[in-house]
Amino acid sequence: MNLRDLRYLVALADHKHFGRAAEASFVSQPTLSTQLKKLEDEIGAALVERSPRNVMLTEVGEAVVARARVILREADEIKAIARRARDPESGTVRLGIFPTLGPYLLPHVVPNIVARFPKLELILVEEKTEVLLKKLHEGELDAAILALPVHDDTLHAEFLFEETFVLAVNRQHKMAGNKRVKLNDLAEERLLLLDDGHCLREQALEVCQMAGAGERTGFRATSLETLRHMVSANVGMTLMPALSVHAPAPSSPGVSLIPFAEPAPHRRIAMIWRRTSALTAFLHQLVPLIKKIPAGLLKAPK
Predict the structure, then answer these.
(1) How many other C-beta atoms are found inside a 10 Å radius of the C-beta of residue 126?
(2) Which of 164, 176, 152 is nearest to 234 (CA)?
(3) What are the phi and psi torsion angles at 216 (to 5°)?
(4) Which domains does the chain have, with CATH numbers?
(5) 120-126 and 91-97: which strand pairing?
(6) pLDDT tens, 267-282?
(7) Distant-in-sequence, close-in-space partners of 86: CB < 8 Å, separation ≥ 6
(8) Deepest in the core among 1, 133, 153, 269, taking most CB within 10 A?
(9) Residue 288 has what pLDDT?
(10) C-alpha distances in angstroms, 96 versus 129, 143, 263, 270?
(11) How far apart are CA 127 and CA 180, in angstroms?
């Protein structure tokens, strides 16, 4: 049994196809098939259920893949320790971030990281929170920027900042001229929200619950920009995070942005990584660079 064969097995579990798994592993399909058969012979149990149309893992195969992911992640951590020992400020960091934050935060912080660590290769992955957490646990990410809370004792969280929400309404709406809006002003209103899986949806639902508001049925968006356009088209109102409404964010013709009276609803953002990560010391150095974002961008525009 060796790490290479475990990687082949995990690739097959991910792709559910011998050809695609072989391509992802940079080997021929016969090579991958042969090595997996040898692995099955060594273990003494079938790991893969082969059929003409699809590939499925057996019950034993599922259990072995789960353990293999842990072993491979630890092996990668060993390599990372050695790499950092040679040059603490070089190498690769794979950083995840969720879609309602990434496009608006990264332009402000990546230049700071590149300037401070010019030899660092920063790989950015934008996915929903659930996917990022899965990738973090499986070692596909070194860290992720997520909204708190994250209930997982195996992960470490470094608080970064609070970002307030702004109410976005069409300029023809009765609230459009308001300088401030209170949560109870939203009572009985129906807000446009994102689809399931977006953490912003959960945060907006919490605000709706506090305000006595609800979700507008029959419509769910897949991005903040879709919500912005729907408000512009006078379909309804929504909540926008402060970073998404500051320049150089997309313009919002026909949209009025109204700050909330204090205490304004907000979301708390942190950088998360595995407690066992070999990059812990280096990741701590990234935290202040991300915190350098101007405080004014985290509040409603004046």
Answers:
(1) 16
(2) 176
(3) -75, 120
(4) 3-83 (1.10.10.10), 88-302 (3.40.190.290)
(5) parallel
(6) 999 999 999 888 898 8
(7) none
(8) 269
(9) 95
(10) 9, 6, 30, 12
(11) 33
